[in-house]
Amino acid sequence: MGLLKGKQILVMGVANKRSIAWGCAQVMQKLGATVIYTYQNERMKKSVSKLVKDDELLIECDVSDDQNIEKAFDQVLQKFGKIDGIVHAIAFANRDELQGEIMNTSREGYQLAQDISAYSLIAVARYGKKILKDPASIVTLTYMGSSRAIPNYNVMGVAKAALEANVRYLARDMGKYGIRVNAISAGAMKTLAVTGVANHSDLLKESQRRTVDQQSVTLDEIGGACAFLMSDLSTGIVGDVIYVDKGVHLI
Ligand code: NAD
To answer: Which of 79, 85, 116, 247 could disulfide-pair with 212, CB 3.0 to 4.6 Å?
Structure first.
């Protein structure tokens, strides 16, 4: 049970109790980690505060702005010293871009999805390097829409492809600092982010149907994989995408 005992891990992307970030945080905490949280803005703080009672563990960070990331990470360093890992569970695209045909994607919508969902990992890694120990681990969340054309997922699939490429390049460059970078490709689950995708109930149903046992992956299962990637048991795993989707990507 003490797999992550003594480790301090920053979790970015909790919106509510359905968030994958929250699932990861819960499992890592059970395994002994101290979890520090960033939230996007004051609106998100209201819902995150209901889950995390200790205000000291909450830091604001909007990843659309480099200065904001730098400031947030400076606060982490001041309050907690160097930390052992960062979970990046953040993505965003306008609803207009998550429906219909990809030809209708606007330039601005495309850039926004890339900026928040893919570039942000690079910025998080750059500022994260200053606050991470050697060794440390960064884990991000992706989806198989990066390599398959999933209905309505469109611009987010393109962003996830970029995110996974970022994982490989970052892993190459951060290895010398003792920082591993990996991604979890999670099965579809009903979260706030997914409700932005048109006909998401069809996506969720189809995804459940395609699992090997017709049971959707759970937050605990994704959290378990995240804990493993944060732990010293996974030091050989670098720049990889680990599927935690109950086999959906196979079939
Ligand atoms: P969620 O809505 O609970 O989490 C998304 C988070 O991104 C929110 O906390 C939101 O505040 C944050 N965010 C958006 N823009 C931000 C910004 N500018 N700055 C800081 N934070 C910002 O949904 P989720 O499904 O838990 O999403 C977490 C990650 O998991 C995303 O990368 C998502 O693409 C990925 N993922 C989700 C699924 C799924 O089916 N839900 C499957 C695979 C991967």
So the answer is: 247
Inter-residue contact 20 to 222 (CB < 8 Å)? yes
Helices assigned H by DSSP within the chain: 20-30, 42-51, 66-80, 107-114, 120-131, 154-174, 200-209, 219-230
Tokens of 229: 């990637």
| Distance between CA atoms of residues 232 and 238, nearest Å | 12
Question: Does 155 sit in the ligand 1 pocket, CB within 6 Å?
Answer: no
- Taking the alpha carbons at both ends of the chain, their separation in whole angstroms is 34
Q: Is 144 near ligand 1, meaning CB less than 6 Å away?
A: no
Cα–ligand 1 centroid distance for 141 (angstroms)? 8
Q: How far is the C-alpha of 233 from the C-alpha of 230, rounded, in Å?
A: 8
State the Cα–Cα distance between residues 28 and 35, nearest whole angstrom. 8
Q: How far apart are alpha carbons 170 and 181 in whole angstroms?
A: 7
Question: What span, in angstroms and rounded, lies between the C-alpha atoms of 102 and 196?
Answer: 15
